[in-house]
Amino acid sequence: MQLVTLLQPLLVIAIGMSLLDLPAGAPHLLAGALLVVAVAVGLWGTRDAPVAPT
């Protein structure tokens, strides 16, 4: 989960790029892919946890 926290600024950069209509180059796409991997790794342990208590 710490990796997700460390990569959170990349999400802010991506949102800023989309709001300001800036082009996305190869480094930006690589950073986005790393963010997706980080979220998947961070959430892997919670995949069997219920969303809401029943």
Task: Write a structural description.
- The protein is mainly alpha-helical and 54 residues long.
- It contains two helices and no strands.
- It has helices at 2-19, 26-43.
- The protein has one domain.
- The two termini are 26 Å apart.
- 2% of the residues are buried.
- Helices cover 67% and strands 0% of the residues.
- How many separate domains? 1
Number of E strands: 0
Overall pLDDT confidence: 73
**What about the largest sheet?**
none
- 3D shape: elongated
Q: Strand pairing plus helix content: what structural class?
A: mainly alpha
Distance between the termini: 26 Å
What is the H/E order?
HH
Roughly what fraction of the amino acids lie in strands? under 5%
Pick out the low-confidence regions. none
Helix content: 55-70%
By DSSP (H or I, 4+ residues per run), the number of helices equals 2
Nearest-angstrom radius of gyration?
Answer: 14 Å
